[in-house]
Amino acid sequence: MVLQERDRRFLEELAILRVVDRDQAKAVAGFGSVTRVNARLLALTRAGLLRRFFLGTSGAQQKALYTLSNAGAKLAGVSHRGLQRRKDESDLGGAFVAHQLALNDLYCAFKFQPIPFPGVVFERWLSFDEAVASSLLPDGYLELRTPAGIVAAFLEADLGTERTAIWGEKARKYVQFGRSGDYERLFGGSRFRVLVVANSERRMQSIRKTVAAVTDIIFWFSTFAALRDGGFFRPVWLRPKGDERLPLIKELP
User: Fold this and answer.
1) Burial classification of residue 203, based on how many CB atoms lie within 10 Å of its CB (0-12 exposed, 13-18 middle, 19 or more buried)
2) Which of 20, 110, 198, 218 is deepest in the core (most CB within 10 A)?
3) Which CATH number does 5-86 carry?
4) Bridge partner list, 238
5) How distant is the alpha carbon of residue 123 from its chain centre?
6) Phi/psi of residue 55, each to 5°?
7) What SS3 class is residue 33?
8) CA distance 94 to 178
9) Cα–Cα distance between 57 and 207 in angstroms, integer?
């Protein structure tokens, strides 16, 4: 097959995303129709550049998932960070894949949806295979460039699979990470936020209550439902204390 520049960019993005469904592939590669993205995914799979798996039961309920093959990673010149199963997961229906797909939704929304503020642009995203400090392993890290400077945030996607009490320890680790100077040393900035996105309003409020007992700074909370359709920049965020829903970025003058 003839590899297009769009294909190469898609393979590079897969090194970050690890595993994608069709809708995420459509957003990342910029396809305008389901027919075109289906045809291209099939061609890349047949060429050995992607590996395809299926999530769910047989028949109409199955969802196709795609990850980089070794050949695809080599061709794109990226490290092979394809699907990695945890020891207690025997198939693609496990919590790891569900969590990765949810995190990918956040990445796609920030990078590929229009930002409704002049002069605000997506700067970078980092994924982590190792803890950044003191067993603190964020789900992701985001930077937006604004006329007022960089807005930096760690991302935490919560699907309700962890005990809520764990969030107290996470909050302490993030606060210590900022106060110790490790964040500035590793990332070059002086301040950051922690954006926690939960799978329900109830779960979000439960995490928020736990975090508020530790700190009332740096944390912002929302839900996946509230963030759909470009909702990141609408007033859908709560701080640890208070009931006012805030936008991620204030209106620029």
Assistant:
1) middle
2) 20
3) 1.10.10.10
4) 221
5) 14
6) -110, 130
7) coil
8) 33
9) 32
Tell me: pLDDT of 173 over 80. Answer: yes
How confident is the model over 86-99, as a mean pLDDT?
A: 61
Percent of the chain scoring above 70 in pLDDT: 91
- Ranges for all domains in the chain classified under CATH 1.10.10.10: 5-86
CA distance 113 to 96: 25
What residue type is 182 in one-letter code?
A: D
More confident residue, 63 or 191: 191
* pLDDT per residue as tens digits for the range 143-160: 999 998 999 999 999 999
Measuring CA to CA, which residue among 186, 171, 181 is closest to residue 221?
Answer: 171
β-sheet bridge partners, residue 179: none
For the chain, the average pLDDT equals 89
Where do we find the tokens 């939960």? 198
